[in-house]
Amino acid sequence: MQGTQLVSRMAAVMRRIGSGASEGVTTAEVAASTGLPRSTAQRVLAALAEEGFVDRDARRGRWYLGPELFLLGSVAAERYDVTSTARDVLRTLAERTGESAFFSARRGTETVCLAGVEGSFPLRSHVLHEGIRFPLGVASAGLAVLAYLPLDDAEAYLTERGGELAAAYGERHDAASLTRRVRSTRKRGYAVNPGLLVPGSWGVGAVVFDRTGAPAWALSLTGVESRFSGERTAALGALLLEAAHTLSQRLSRRASP
Known about the structure:
By secondary structure, this protein is an alpha+beta fold. The chain has nine helices and eight strands. It has helices at 3-19, 27-34, 38-50, 67-80, 83-97, 139-147, 151-169, 175-188, 231-252; strands spanning 54-57, 62-65, 100-107, 110-117, 133-135, 191-194, 201-209, 215-224. A six-stranded antiparallel sheet has the order 5-4-3-8-7-6, sandwiched between helices. A two-stranded antiparallel ribbon has the order 1-2. The two termini are 34 Å apart.
């Protein structure tokens, strides 16, 4: 690997490790998710570890993001971090609903979960956690963001990625199914994931806009199906829309980087 290809592969490896959160990931998992041969993945991981970008628990054989990324991230946070602005909104949502509340950011054609606050209800969904990534259209946050992209952009994305999403996440994520859910989301104002990733694990999401009106982030609530059925889904959606509007206004007042 040379030049830009090497940089792209290293970035893909670090993203996969980051999505493993506190669990870490194995070399085999990195290879499978990035399409690298295992021997190549091992060499990339070793090189990243040498520079401090990743770290390995030798006893468990799992990889984690390393200390150098923490140091760089601390510097970058002053310019890009928005989670501090979102955390009190998450806490309020979790307290008012009893469900777990999450804040995700759009990153290209994915959403990345940046922060979460657990709800008080003892039964919880465990689909989302900080660091996990999903393609747009997958999970309630990704569906909310996709629904508020310019229509031409959303249609182009679904045409290009529909087959891939269906293969990875099930036939209810094909282009036709996602198109219907995008329309429903735009009509309601909020997105609903009725257990499409994990049976019985529901989510509701609302988009958060940046100062230009672009869908840049999303708030979501997740929980078990019995807590999201019937009229309560609409009530949760209304709360999310209110919270998303508040957060959009707060973030739009932040100084531009």
